[in-house]
Amino acid sequence: MNFKEVQDLLRMMNVDMSEHHALRLFMMADRSQTGSLEDDEFVQFYKMLTQRDDVLRLFQGYSSDGQKMSLRDLEEFLRTEQLEGDRSQQRALELIDCYEPSDTAKMLHAMSIDGFLMYLSSAEGSIFNPHQQGIYQDMSQPLCHYFISSSHNTYLLEDQIRGQSSVEGYIRALKRGCRCVEVDCWDGPNGEPIVYHGHTFTSKILFKDVIAAVGSYAFKASEYPVILSMENHCSVDQQRAMAEHLDHILGDRGS
């Protein structure tokens, strides 16, 4: 896998990383200096990519030998940090069986740093109350009574100066349940309004494509209203074009 293919993979995985940092990790993993990652080199790249120094320090703080957590080590972590209580030994065995990728470690009733990271990154390691993952609030109040999950410069996939604009930004935000997206509108060629970060080198996308994406994905993750926060810099003629696209694409869903 060459560096361009690695970049494409990172985008598919929604990994937000600068090109400079990704290239540095790539070159460190490319021990054969062939310009591509093969087998163990890719594994090394992945480990560097996902390394969490804070988790490693926590792991080593509870590990007796700094290499693995024994059953007793993991029990102590569960009692002290996770407040698991009297059931900590059975819970530790369950977690090792579920998250530990090494069969050898499983046989020893131990957990490696990889298993520990997988556990903490899972839903079971989440700090949030699982009973509040769904909608549990009173949703009968006026819209202005709620905090709303909002996105800024939704169209940007990268930085605000030279980054790429894409309808994919809207799709990602809406699929994650975002209820307010930003649309910066400017005059475009051939009478078609465009969306981009004005007075910068960011790329440009068509306003009508943005609205089509919103129309398709607005209610995939939630049934509640989506607010289009429009920063309007368009001329009167292109504002008319915007209104036509909103009416034609969204129909009675827009208000």
TrEMBL record:
It is a peripheral membrane protein. The keyword DNA-binding does not apply. GO terms for molecular function: calcium ion binding; phosphatidylinositol-4,5-bisphosphate phospholipase C activity. Keywords: Calcium, Cytoplasm, Endoplasmic reticulum, Hydrolase, Lipid degradation, Lipid metabolism, Membrane, Metal-binding, Nucleus, Transducer. GO terms for biological process: intracellular signal transduction; lipid catabolic process. One of its GO terms (cellular component) is endoplasmic reticulum. It catalyses: a 1,2-diacyl-sn-glycero-3-phospho-(1D-myo-inositol-4,5-bisphosphate) + H2O = 1D-myo-inositol 1,4,5-trisphosphate + a 1,2-diacyl-sn-glycerol + H(+). The keyword Kinase does not apply. It holds the Pfam family PI-PLC-X. It is found in: Cytoplasm; Endoplasmic reticulum; Membrane; Nucleus. Residues 17-52 form the EF-hand domain. Its EC number is 3.1.4.11. InterPro entries: EF-hand-dom_pair, EF_Hand_1_Ca_BS, EF_hand_dom, PI-PLC_fam, PLC-like_Pdiesterase_TIM-brl, PLC_EF-hand-like, PLipase_C_PInositol-sp_X_dom. This is Phosphoinositide phospholipase C. It comes from Anguilla anguilla (European freshwater eel).
